[in-house]
Amino acid sequence: MHVLVTRPLPAANQTAKRLRALGHDVTVDPMLRIAPTTTPLPDRPFDAVAFTSINGVTAFAAHPDGKRFLHLPAFAVGPRTAKEARAIGFAQVTDCDGDASALAGRIAAVLPSGARVLNPAGEDRAADLAGLLAAPGISLDLAIVYAAEPADALSEEARAALESGTVKAALHFSQRTVKTLLRCVEGAGLNDTLTGVRELCLSEQVAEPFVRKGLVVEVAAAPNEDALFALL
Fold first, then answer.
1. Would you say 118 and 107 are in contact if contact means Cβ atoms under 8 Å apart?
2. Cα(83)–Cα(94) distance, integer angstroms
3. Degrees (nearest 5) of the Cα angle 226, 229, 232?
4. pLDDT of residue 126
5. pLDDT of 98
6. Is residue 178's pLDDT more than 90?
7. Contact at 8 Å (CB) between 27 and 162?
8. Spatial contact of 37 and 65, defined as CB atoms under 8 Å apart
9. Is the peptide bond before 10 cis (omega within 30 degrees of 0)?
10. What CA–CA distance (Å, rounded) separates 228 from 232?
11. Which 3 state secondary structure label does DSSP give 171?
């Protein structure tokens, strides 16, 4: 099967590698470009670090202040994010194996009321982690470590693959990449091509823009890449 991957780099290349190992053909066309920032991180004591995406981990690793937090326990939203957190130097990493609600639940189960958590993330976030942690009395400091810049148009490879009907499925990891893809497809005059593509989405929230367009979607049983791959 020919699969379109639209998530940002470098995660898109990791997903493509897994797909090719399973025998699929892949076109990678990131709908968002991750641009790390150098805004100073908060200068106060923290009890833990919480990561809601691989992009947050990657940008945090590139941040000039990031290393001073590596001694803290880290909580990661899922297995891929947890693996990346370990790779950049965190020794204590908890894989929360779910979504933001699961992440908040695990943090609240481990940390006491009054704890303070640093959340390196992007400018646009799908969930309110601070709100989820407010009830158990845990403070969350958001640190914007990257910006996600939307693509202006489809790549030539993606455009040709869609136009020829080669693409049979597409993996979607965030609502913003879906919105950007829809805009780029419309700009290329290729709206009709999407009806022949299986739109495989990480969650109902990710799928919403497709549903509003009247397109058929398939949603993973759990918000992680393994569950998304199980739809193929």
1. no
2. 10
3. 160
4. 67
5. 79
6. yes
7. no
8. no
9. yes
10. 8
11. strand
Mean pLDDT (whole number) for 122-136: 85
* 87: CB partners within 8 A, 6+ apart: none
Q: Is 114 left (phi over 0), alpha (psi -120 to 50) or beta?
A: left
Helices (H), the chain: 11-21, 54-62, 79-87, 100-110, 129-134, 156-164, 175-187, 204-212, 225-229
Note whether 106 and 88 are within 8 A (CB).
Answer: no
- Alpha-carbon distance values, 175 to 110, 129, 142, 182, 224 (Å): 30, 17, 21, 11, 14
Neighbouring residues of 183: CB distance < 8 A, sequence distance ≥ 6: 150
DSSP state of 196: G
Percent of the chain at pLDDT > 90 equals 85
Closest CA to 7 of 180, 153, 144: 180
Token couple for 144: 């914007």
Query: What span, in angstroms and rounded, lies between the C-alpha atoms of 181 and 43?
Result: 38
Burial of 142 (0-12, 13-18, 19+ CB in 10 A): middle
- pLDDT number for residue 11: 87
Compute the average pLDDT of residues 161-180: 96
pLDDT digits (tens, 9 = 90+) for 76-106: 998 889 999 999 999 999 999 878 889 999 9
Total residue length of the chain = 232
Which of helix, strand or coil describes residue 154?
Answer: coil
